[in-house]
Design brief:
The structure holds two protein chains of two kinds. Chain A is of the alpha+beta class. Chain A contains 13 helices and 19 strands. Chain A starts with 14 loop residues before the first strand and ends with a helix. The mean pLDDT of chain A is 95. In chain B, helix 6 links the parallel strand 5 and strand 6. The longest helix of chain B is centred in the middle third of the chain and has 29 residues. Classes of the chains: A alpha+beta, B alpha/beta.
Amino acid sequence: MSLSSWGNYPKTVNRVFNFDKIATLKAILNRHSDLIPYGNGRSYGDSALSENIVQVKPYNYFLDFDEASCTVHVQAGVLLSDILDVLVPKGFFLKVTPGTKLITVGGAIASDVHGKNHHIEGCFSESVEVFTLMLPDGEIISCSKQQNTELFKATCGGMGLTGVILDAKISLKRINSRYIDQVTIKTKNLKETFEAFEAYKDASYSVAWIDCLARGDGLGRSLLMVGEFRDDGELGYEDRKKLNIPFNLPSFLLNRFSVKIFNSFYYGRIRDRISRQRVDIDQFFYPLDAIRHWNRIYGEKGFAQYQFILPKKSSFSGLKEMLELITCSGKGSFLAVLKLYGEANENYLSFPMEGYSLALDFKIEKGVFALFEKLDEVVLKHGGRIYLAKDARVSQAVFEKGYPKIDKFRALRKKYEMNKTFQSLQSLRTGI
Amino acid sequence: MAYVLIIGAKSDIAMALARKYAESGHDLYLAARKPEELRGFANDLKIRSQKDIRLLALDILDFSSHDGFYRSLDQKPSGVISVVGYLGEQVKAQSEFTEAHRIIDTNFTGVVSLLNIVADDFEARKEGFIVGISSVAGDRGRKSNYIYGSAKAAFTTYLSGLRNRLHDAGINVLTVKPGFVATKMTEGMDLPGALTAQADEVAKDIFEAQQKKQDVIYSKWMWRWIMSIINNIPEWIFKKTSI
């Protein structure tokens, strides 16, 4: 059985190895090359695909929870949702969480994921106190900001190309409610959207849904959602009922007209310029987790996400140019997310930098990759980069220009002979 | 909350059951021959469920130790689940009696020894439930695994008698007959996908049946019908088949 990624693109044939013991993993690394660790399969493109795949999910024990120091120690296959199930009722939450809780801790570190509070808390690696890593020769090393710092900086955001993350100690934040006070700000165009982000830059959480098919005066119209945890002591956390997409839908259902109708409806349903809602953790942080297999709406051929970030000073003109290209192509999606980020960290391949990032989903169809190449040019012109965890197609040249620390990363891979054991389809394509 | 005792706790079905019962608020005694191998699992379960999870050493083949084992439990369990099972090697068991003996003693004699003790206690206390994991292999003997199958058949019959005996005391006895299950025991076998259950599906079936005080269940459910067909094949035809 071959594994695929969240975008169901590319489709590949691979061999899958499982481990739940150190000795088993050691033997796998010893015997095979072109290996890549695979968590819960939520990276969109080909960063966790390779000829040989090591599934980390079966390695999923909680090792310790220390209430006094606000830390939880888990094996790398534990899902963020498992941590929340156990710890939200006790009044703890992840310092940093992406828009899905259905990822492994190992995957969160390898992609150095970020969330709606990047402008305040930074990336997931900020909450990692220490992790252990198995190197190609089977040696197990502890890495933190104080210890083996080079390996720490390479592995956080290193897309699984430095070894297999075994376990990690994560520091948590205290919460006193499972509810969030959300404020929704409706903006009429890109300028207003930027102003709103600036006006709410002290909010703990912020993210905008942007109507990427709106043209002319309405270009860049958005719904900016900001939030703060409440303080009402309500901590019960239970799974809500989930919708399920049972099979791949025919991809023609998503076209410029249906998306335009959806976008108009989604934007139009909010009447006031500023409105307030009380929402719970799942509604605020993980709205799409409520629909199992939502990736199937893009049909058999799958989809690709294009997520890029531009430095703050060129963000406005750059985004305008990007949105114009996208609206002209007519290939927009209804899941388009805009966010203002805080400063970059020191990790070699982490995606965030201070500026605006936009993420868009496109179904795989004729012309989509040509559009991506045009978008690449604009991203590079403005000094931006694309997110490896979402990518399935970027060229080596475009990748390298976006990630100036790639040479350090390559040198480290060579030093530990990681490149002889670990490769993904993405690393082979981009020469990482 | 009262403890549930799981015997043969290292099997995949047992571990899935442990998760299910801990999740639903039960403290657990997990008994296995080498309990130290379950330390990581038990620690994980303890953190996830906030329940008390105790590991106990129990050798099901050391019959004389069973009484002492049960007496050593300072709080007697409110339910006992036997997940003990040893498939063994059929061909080896045909020619080497030690293998046949081990299959029979593990699947039948040892479990009888222990459940006799449990049954006495439950009957006296007039509370508790017993779940025995038998097998569809016990429904009809086939050349591919009739030594294991006959031991399980004996166990099925034992559970049926026990159910009859304990009914007046208000003790429910549940017989579980799993079909194909994807576990360590069946690793490497080529099992048909549609008929093969995952360990946590079987655990869910068992938990629900136990809560509803059912008597006999198959898991997956379709095995009831499959076995009903197999049981009704006339012997003069059945003996010529290799199912």
